Amino acid sequence: MNLVAMPILLPLLTAIAALLLRADTLRRGIVIASCAFQVIVALALVILTARQGPIALSIGDWAPPFGIVLVADLLSSIMVALAGIISLASIVYGYLELPCRLEHPLRIPLTQFLMVGLCQSFLTGDLFNLFVAFEVMLICSYALLTLEADDWDIKQAFPYLAINAVGSMIFLAAVAFAYGIFGTLNFAEISQRAAGMSDDPRVLILAVLLLGVFGIKAGLFPLYFWLPNSYPILSTPLAALFGGMLTKVGVYVLLRVFGTVLPQDLSGLHTVLAWLGGVTMLLGVIGAVSRNFVRGILSFHILSQIGYMVLAIGFFSPYAIAAAIFYNIHNNLVKSSLFLVGGTISLLNGTDDLKRSANLWRATPLLGVAFLLLGLSLAGLPPLSGFWGKLMIVQDGLRQGEYVLIFVALFTSIFTLLSMMKIWNASFWTQDASVPVRIHDRRWIGLTAVTCTMALLTVAVTIFAGPLIELSHQASEEIFKRETYIRAVLQLKADRGGVVDQAVSVPFEAVSDPIDGTSNPWLPEVAR
To answer: CA quadruple 246, 248, 254, 256: dihedral positive or negative?
Structure first.
């Protein structure tokens, strides 16, 4: 179905148009219209996959495993929709922040090419094209990271370039190794052939290699050192896009590979994943508390929040995976919105250094309310969306007896609240006559409007937490009941006269964690 390819084609065509068009007003209008249409297409894809299950599309009419296959299931559709929303908000914010003459002409084309890589990562159905999507995404991110940087900032980008270059080499080696084991790189066919190979040491080695690659991309301990110093050098709209989506690609692929592709009984590796998530969240929040400027605090909190999602993946039950998916929905919107708030603080105070910030509550209480909602949601205070995601993770951890990891998760929440209050007290609550507020710069009005709109989306996630949790459960069920994914892909092969291997049944009941809200005593009332 052509709708599956649209999230990749639309930003590709938009990037080309942005490169060719010279009239700034026309270019900006086309880009915003295209980004809005990308959101509509992505939401349509979510509705379609929620109703009828995974949808597969072969590119060039070549049957899998030889042809390129795009697969949209509920999880990938949700990720594409989140990417579209955050991209639209970031681009509108950037247009309001900079006049045409000051905007680098390559920023928007590169951002749209980055979206091509993001959406291809979410929709691809084979390992090699996932590698290609990663390279498209990384090349664009390298360019965007250094596009408007000065000499000092470029030095901070070196670790990002170096570690991701190493990750790409390991990824390519893992792709070759996977082909040597399974004779295919198609996710559906690997899933079939790997189902009876959980005791094969080669499968474990492959899983460790992939964990290393995607752990780098997600910012997992001990491979996270590149992130806290690299992201603060980005401009505000790019920081919102990178912080909201780029590291979540690693989380998505961990879900895809360990849930849909590799055997689901790699319990030892799942335990390692859970502990890596716990250590990442702890060190991330400690780093956030130690920083004294907004972008630095928020960059470290990317790590702490990634830790929660990876912890849930490590628990590896249907309920925990549903928690990871819902938490991802919440965190993507909250994290990108917080970066937009930080940019507006910088505009009004002329800096995001908390020692030189003050007086913003009296100048713009609406921005203060938006930050307070976002900060409390990030910390997980009830009844905001972050609370429900963390509650689900904590409940499943207690059910599995992982008391140390749950203590770390609660400890991290407390210090997340402290760091958010650190920003609130310095920027909004403190009154200091020596700190200027550049209220005469009227750009802050439009920037606040974009930020508050994003904050309202996070409020909507809170209000509709019940339906979104149910949607997350449905996506989790598709991951564990992988037959629907396999059937959608291999039907393309059958339609083109290919020989289809006998599908290996992976009974959902074998995972032993009901996702029925009425039968799970740990399920919060809002999800029933």
So the answer is: negative
